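Escalation from tier 1.

The customer reports that the assembly of two entities below gives different C-alpha cells on two consecutive runs. Tier 1 could not reproduce it. I'm attaching the input and our single run for tier 2 to review.
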Amino acid sequence: MTDDRERFERLYRENFRAVLRFAALRIDPERAKDVVAETFLVAWRRLDDVPAEPRAWLLGVARKVIAGQFRSQTRRDALVLRLEAERGESGDFAATVADRDEVLAAFAALRERDRDVLRLVAWDGLDAAEAAAVLGVTRLSFAVRLHRARRRLERALEPEPAAPQKTRRHIDAHS
Amino acid sequence: MRTRKSLQVLAVAGQALLADAESLVDPAEEERILARIVATDRSAVRRRRPLALGLVAAVAIGVVAAAVVTHGHAVRPSTPRQSHVALTGARIQLAGYHFRTPAGFKANSDTSCGGTGTPLAVGGFVAAASADGGCVAAYLVSASETESMATADGQSVDVCSFQGYYESQASGDSSLYVVLPAASQTALSPYNLVLFARNLTEDQLMAVAESGLSAVNYGAMPKNGTVCS
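Tier 1 run:
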C-alpha cells in the first residue's frame, strides 16, 4: 500500500498540471478543478491499470469525466465565452496579437469535434499516438481527423475574397 | 501562417489560456486535493479495468424523482424480452424507478448481492431483493464510480433504448450497467444504474432493468432516450 501511495503521489505531482490544463481549456475553471480531482481519484482506484506512460491515459479519463458531467452545449459555450473574453482583453495590441485574435476567432468558430483534435496537439502538446489514445481511436483515424481539422482551421483563417473593384478603364467605358 | 503553420500559430495563440489554466490551482490546493484522494478507501471498489463503453450520460436524481412525482408512472408495453421472463416477484424501488423481480423474490435490505464489494450509492439509493439462492441489487452510482467498477470482460447491450454493459462471471454473479438519459440540460451530476445479481440469467437481469426503465416517464428526456416500447 505504501508503494502504491508513493507511486500515486509521484504520478499525481508529475501530471497534475497537464490534467489541469487539459480540463481548464475545455470547461470553466471551477468545474475544471472538480474534473482534475475526479480524474486522479479514478487513477488512485485503478492504479494497477495506469500505464507506465500515464499522461494519455489520464487525459482520456479526464475527457470521459468532462463528457459525463457536463452537457456538450454547456462545455462548448463555456469555451467560446472564454475565447471571446480572451480576444476582447487583447483587442488593442499589436499585429501579433491581432493574429492571435484572428486565430482564436477562427478556432472558436470550428465544430467541437475539430477543436477537440486541434487542442490535443496544439495546446496539450500530445503527439499523434498519445492524442489517438486520449480519444480512443486509431492513430490513422486521428491523423485523418487532424488533417481535416487543420484544413478547416486554415480555411477559416483565409481572408474573405475581396469584392471585384472597377478599374478606371472599366468605369470610363461605362460613363 | 495560414497553411503550414496553423498549428504552431494556434499553439502560440493559446498560451495565455494555458497560463490562466496554470494559475487556477496553487500548490497548497494541489496538496489538499491529493490528501483528499489518498484518504479514500481503494478496497471498496471491485476489479479495476477500463470500461469498454463510455458510461457518460448524466441524470440528476432529483430531477428524475421530480419527474416521477410530477408525471406519475406511465407504464409502457413490455418488450419482447420481458414477455419471455416472468417477473412476478416483489417490486423494489430505487429513486423514481420501480423494478420487478423474478418469481419468488422478496425485497430485503441485503445489498451485497453479486459483488465482492458494494458501490457507493449516490444519496443512499439502493434496493435489493432475493430468493432462495438468488438475489438482485440495484444502485444509482456516479459515472466515475462506475468506471472503476466495470471490467473489460463484458459486452455492450441495449437496455430498452439505452446503452448498457453486461458482464457475468462463472460464479453466477452478473452485473448490468446502464447509461441513464439526461433528465435535464442543467443536470451536472452523472449517474448510472447498476444492477448486481446472483444466479439470474442475462435475460432475467435485462428484464428486471427494463421493467424499471419502462415505468418512468421522462418528461425532459432526449429524443434518443426513449423508454422500452
